[in-house]
Specification:
The protein is built from 2 helices and 10 strands. By secondary structure, it is α+β, with helices and mostly antiparallel strands. The longest helix is centred in the first third of the chain and has 13 residues. It is globular and about 35 Å long.
Length: 166
């Protein structure tokens, strides 16, 4: 189980799907266990679409690698659909560019299926997701007031090696 505590908003809990996205899950858990996400923010919020966090550059936390994500356009069958509450790994237009940024679907987005590595789903905290998705945003969909990730914990999640690129 993953527990995401968001300062002034509450807690969201999620289950990871290791069968669908083992490398993405391993990468996420490694970053969680290292404390990487602590103090970062949900930096891109689009109501009716998704909330995105984990951009370390905002706090001077840099990763020197990317990973190969599990999605159809990258040659991997991933059965998870981008439905409300699904966790997925963000990336650039390059398939193997995922690193630390992830997003949580606020509403269904079937156009993302097969294009991004979905790797888990919320089991609780949908009210927190809705509150975050409703914040006022400015340029580049960044919240006007920071939405801080107080902590992310991996509870009873295995530690597995990550296949890193670069």
């Amino acid at each position: 189980m993953i527990r995401i505590t968001v300062k002034n908003y509450g807690v969201m809990e999620a289950e990871l799907d290791w069968d669908a996205a083992p490398n993405t899950c391993a990468n996420f858990v490694e970053l969680v266990n290292s404390g990487f996400y602590t103090g970062l923010i949900f930096h891109r919020i689009i109501k009716g679409f998704m909330i995105q966090g984990g951009w370390g550059d905002l706090k001077g936390k840099h990763l020197d690698y990317s990973i190969k994500g599990e999605f159809a356009s990258n040659g991997v069958k991933n059965p998870l659909l981008h439905k409300r509450g699904v966790l997925s790994m963000a990336r650039t237009m390059f398939p193997d560019s995922a690193s630390s940024q992830f997003f949580i679907m606020h509403k269904d987005a079937p156009h993302l299926d097969g294009e991004y590595a979905a790797f888990g789903h919320l089991t609780s905290g949908f009210d927190v997701l809705d509150k975050i998705a409703s914040v006022r945003t400015g340029r580049n969909d960044m919240p006007v007031q920071p939405v801080e990730i107080e902590s992310i914990e991996a509870i009873d999640e295995p530690t597995k090696p990550v296949e890193k690129i670069r």
